[in-house]
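Problem: given the chain below (172 residues), write out its structure.
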Amino acid sequence: MKTVVTLLLLALPALALADSNPDQNFYEHLAQGGMAEVEAGKLAQQHGASQAVKDFGAMMVKDHSAANEKLKKLADSKSVKLPEGPSVTQKAKAKMLEMKSGSSFDKEYIEGQLKAHEETVELLKKEIDSGKDADAKAFATEVLPTVEEHLTKIRQIATDTGVKAANSGSKN
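Solution.
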């Protein structure tokens, strides 16, 4: 019994933190994705073979840096702690991407951007439809058109370069 009480006492701060904002998961995933987009965009500008990939990377750095700042201010105003960087998986993908160059870089970057933007559109729509935090829902509503524009552009780049990704093009 003493062990159970001890475990419960140790778990209370984590439970309290988890309940601090009903949309904590949304904040975390969006922040990690935004930071990953900035990092990948910088790589695209350095390693991309085509001008379209380099230009798209520059747009990712600009647009996602701005969105990341807005999200950080919103999270700070609600005492929501955001991750300090991309997820471990996102960091590993960036490391693998960093080792590529030329057309193989472009192909992998384009495929990754298709998947990431499709997932982000889904995340934003889910927040808009079922989020509990009104400010998070408003933020999702504000940034959704930009992310959909990014998805349209990367789909066009994929078409122009002959890159096909699994599940790409079937949504939106």
